[in-house]
Design brief:
The structure holds two protein chains of two kinds. Chain A is α/β, with parallel strands linked by helices. Chain A is built from nine helices and ten strands. In chain A, the strands form two sheets. Chain A has a six-stranded mixed β-sheet, with helices on both faces. By secondary structure, chain B is an all-alpha fold. Chain B contains 21 helices and no strands. In chain B, helix 1 crosses helix 2, helix 4 packs parallel to helix 7 and helix 12 packs across helix 16. The chains are: A alpha/beta, B mainly alpha.
């Protein structure tokens, strides 16, 4: 299988704080990979490094064969990203924001694509509303749309289901699973373990910036073990250490 | 409820000290003090050509302008504040979680900002002047009186513009009528007394002859302006949804000849829809410059012929360069972090929007040249003003990247900025005073401007994008 994302000894320090410490992992094409960890474990920093939003202090990583340090913009051109905080520009409407994204990414025929997403995520009535006036859930829908509107080979999503109601969560989970089945890759970070167990094919557990485990979900299933209990046992053990 | 105020002060301190270190922020007023202290030694020299009363006038005008430039609180949308400080959760938003009204929180916010500006600018400047007074032959009592009247001058600018901007946010027609009434009142005063109405500016009156009655009247006027502004302040209504027809696509077409059309189209919509384009033009550009022109017009006899026009052109250039802060205040790099956009691309796009906005100072300088009967020097004055503006924005982009509003309070940044701008202003003011047509030489500033912008792009691409 082709590896689409590979991190080698990735480390990020903010002053005296080590947010990510010597993490190595690989994600294969077509995987729906979950980066799991409690709050403050370094998941967001990891995604920021993998998408060229912040430079690693040491180590290296490639995403779709592109080096995260030498060509961060090149990576963002190829992938779709949903950041932790939904921040579409305040004074553009939802539709205008998608037009803006299309102009930056040079996506043709944006109207048809945008309309499909407005219908799919059920927010067509908010098309002409200023982004600053949208609810958090609708902003999340908009950010979801901008991440997938260019049909990227790889999407990196920080907490994909946050702010969504249960109906929308179900829809999005199905979409992500279907997207991976088409041979595209999804990399999500989350602390909702049940969701990860339900949709992910592979996972990694991060705690206090350190990688505790990485492997396929099927490995756990074969042992008749559940991801939440496995996660909790590892993290609790690490806490005691 | 004093706790809210003290916590806001702490919060402001921590925001800045986290961004560029406590020492760099703490040294900012020390530098203002140093500038005032050393500048005071020039006073005896300046007195040989300009009478003391006129020097006082210049300093008061400067502080009035400072007050005017920071007083546009009525224009502050919560959203702009949020974008400016990125993901920082400010106490200004605590109305959502604490049993405090928006008006109460906002009045604390304005008072906190006023106190901050006082300690950052007004007090250090006054102290520098006071401590230098034994060496410059200025009586200590006069120096202390100057500190008081400069404070009042600053507060008049701040409260006056806060009042006007709060009215602007409610009704543009009401603002127009009030400005008209002020204009008619000042003209009437000039006709009745036969004197320039500037001379009736309360802090100036107090400075020339202090009386308790005048002092108390000044304080009462300030309190009234501030109180009315707070009452009129219109907090952003939560839950209202503003809808617009698609304007982005047509703008994208219109700006297709520019380097980054989508960004310029977005900036244009930001400025227009937030009300900042008109509001900032009035309160951060036209009003301070009108005040400066009004005050400087009294100094005409002390400048060489045509000197006043070129001094206004240069001042306009410096103030016009702050238009860069208008276009950078709407967003941090955050909203672009998920797109294939480099910081340098964003700097280019903000500078492009800035360049489009330069039509405003160009028209302003041209109008001043025509109204002051010096239309013959219109072109050199416009060339000088716009060249200075582009050079100053080049310095700003190099020093501050996309965060000029925040990084200006880093003492190292301000020091380098003042040196780089000061040298250029001195050279070109002297050149234009010597011969108005020497102002054309300002076009050579295009070269350092280009270099500065190049350096800015390289510098800010090499560091993690700031979250503010």
């Amino acid at each position: 299988m082709t590896v689409v994302l590979e991190a080698k000894n990735l480390t990020k320090q903010y002053g005296d704080v080590t947010a990510v410490d010597n993490v190595s992992l690989a994600v294969e094409k077509g995987a729906l990979f979950g980066l799991l960890g409690p709050n403050g474990s370094g998941k967001t920093t990891m995604i920021k490094m993998l998408t060229g939003q912040t430079r690693p202090t040491s180590g290296s990583a490639t995403v779709l064969g592109i080096d995260v340090i030498s060509d961060p913009v090149g990576i963002r051109d190829q992938v779709g990203i949903i950041p932790e905080q939904e921040t579409p520009p305040s004074f553009l409407t939802a539709m205008e924001y998608l037009e803006f994204v299309a102009a930056v990414r040079k996506i043709p025929e944006i109207d048809t694509k945008a309309d499909w997403w407005f219908d799919f995520l059920d927010f067509a009535d908010k098309k002409n509303v200023l982004c600053k006036d949208l609810s958090r859930g609708t902003r999340q829908k908009l950010m979801f749309t901008q991440a997938f509107i260019h049909e990227p080979e790889l999407a990196l999503i920080d907490e994909p289901l946050i702010n969504f109601d249960p109906i929308m969560q179900d829809l999005v989970k199905d979409f992500l699973a279907g997207y991976a089945r088409k041979g595209k890759t999804i990399f999500i970070s989350t602390h909702i373990l049940e969701v990860a167990e339900e949709i992910c094919s592979g996972f990694a557990i991060l705690h206090k910036g350190t990688l505790l485990h990485t492997g396929p979900v099927a490995e756990l299933t074969a042992r008749d073990e559940h991801l939440p209990s496995f996660f909790l046992s590892l993290v609790r053990k690490d806490r005691h250490v | 409820m004093f706790e809210l105020f003290t916590n806001m002060v702490k919060e402001e301190w921590r925001i800045h000290s986290t961004m560029f270190g406590s020492l760099s922020f703490a040294l900012f007023p020390v530098m203002i003090f140093g500038i005032a202290f050393m500048g005071s030694f020039l006073v005896p020299l300046m007195r040989t050509t300009i009478p003391a009363g006129n020097l006082t006038l210049i300093i008061h005008a400067t502080y009035l302008m400072l007050g005017i430039m920071v007083g546009g609180f009525g224009l502050l949308g919560n959203e702009v504040m949020n974008r400016r400080f990125g993901q920082a959760s400010l106490l200004a938003y605590s109305a959502r979680s604490l049993p405090l009204s928006e008006k109460f929180i906002f009045s604390n916010f304005v008072i906190k900002d006023t106190v901050y500006y006082f300690f950052l600018w007004v007090l250090p400047f006054g102290l520098g002047y006071i401590l230098a007074s034994p060496f410059t032959g200025v009586p200590l009592a006069s120096a202390m009186l100057l500190l008081l009247t400069l404070t009042l001058s600053f507060l008049f600018g701040l409260c006056g513009v806060f009042f006007l901007s709060a009215i602007y946010a409610r009704s543009r027609l009401a603002l127009l009528l009030i400005l008209l009434a002020i204009g008619i009142g000042l003209a009437g005063l000039a006709v009745i007394t036969g004197m320039n109405p500037v001379l009736f500016f309360p802090p100036l009156l107090l400075n020339s002859a202090f009386t308790w009655v005048n002092f108390l009247v000044s304080c009462a006027v300030l309190a009234l302006l501030f109180g009315v502004a707070i009452v009129l302040f219109n907090p952003e209504s939560v839950g209202s949804e503003k809808t617009y027809r698609d304007s982005f696509a047509p703008l994208l077409q219109r700006f297709s000849f520019l380097p980054n059309p989508p960004f310029t189209a977005k900036d244009t919509l930001d400025l227009y829809r937030s009300g900042s384009l008109v509001g900032q033009t009035i309160f951060s550009f036209l009003l301070p410059l009108a005040v400066i022109w009004f005050f400087l017009s009294l100094l005409g006899p002390f400048f060489p012929p045509h000197g006043l026009l070129f001094l206004i052109a240069i001042t306009t250039g410096v103030i016009a360069s702050t238009m860069y802060t208008w276009v950078t205040m709407f967003d941090t790099f955050g909203p672009y972090a998920c797109l294939p956009v480099a910081v340098s691309t964003l700097i280019t796009s903000k500078l492009t929007t800035f360049a489009v906005l330069q039509a405003i100072p160009a028209v302003f300088i041209a109008a001043i040249a025509i109204f002051s009967g010096e239309a013959a020097y219109l072109i050199p004055a416009v060339v000088l003003g716009i060249s200075v503006s582009f050079y100053a924005v080049g310095v700003m982009a190099w020093l501050c990247g996309l965060s000029p509003n925040v990084l200006v309070y880093d003492v190292k940044v301000l020091f380098v900025y003042l040196i780089l701008i000061g040298i250029v202003l001195t050279i070109f003011t002297a050149a234009a005073f010597a011969n108005p047509y020497y102002a054309f030489f300002a076009v050579i500033l295009a070269l350092p401007t280009w270099l500065l912008v190049r350096m800015a792009k390289v510098r800010w691409d090499a560091v993690d994008p700031a979250g503010f």
